[in-house]
Design a protein that fits this description.
- There is one protein chain.
- With about 110 residues, this protein is an alpha+beta fold.
- Helices cover about 35% and strands about 25% of the residues.
- The chain is built from two helices and six strands.
- The chain has a four-stranded antiparallel sheet with strand order 2-1-3-4, covered by helices on one side.
- A hairpin with a 2-residue loop joins strand 5 (about 100-105) and strand 6 (about 105-110).
- Helix 1 (about 15-35) packs antiparallel against helix 2 (about 65-85).
- The longest helix is centred in the last third of the chain and has 21 residues, at about 65-85.
Length: about 110
């Protein structure tokens, strides 16, 4: 059994060069700092998002034990909070398997 986080963003305008640089920097920072990168996947985006989206991706979480899964979900939701801030005009969707994450105040929560 595996657990994955799915994330997407949509808006009418494409990602700008400056936004792309910011997204890549945030992604690199969190991917390099992920303590379980040898057991699970890091943030990744689909090469070609679906038609209505400007960004889509998924991350398969390590499935070692419940504690590591919960720590990983918290870590990646923090990363997705930073990515959301980098594209504030986009409408974001974040799901942990088939359960939607919630945007509360200024961050993603389980």
């Amino acid at each position: 059994m595996s657990v994955s986080i799915y994330y997407s963003a949509k808006r009418n305008s494409p990602i700008t060069t400056a936004e792309n640089v910011s997204l890549l920097a945030i992604t690199d920072m969190f991917n390099q700092g992920f303590p379980y990168k040898n057991e699970g996947e890091t943030l990744s985006f689909y090469r070609k998002p679906s038609e209505e989206y400007i960004l889509e991706g998924a991350t398969k979480l390590p499935y070692c034990d419940e504690t590591i899964i919960v720590e990983s979900v918290i870590y990646w939701l923090k990363a997705l909070t930073h990515l959301t801030s980098a594209l504030p005009t986009a409408v974001w969707e974040v799901q942990i398997d088939d359960c939607p994450a919630s945007w509360v105040d200024d961050h993603w929560e389980m």
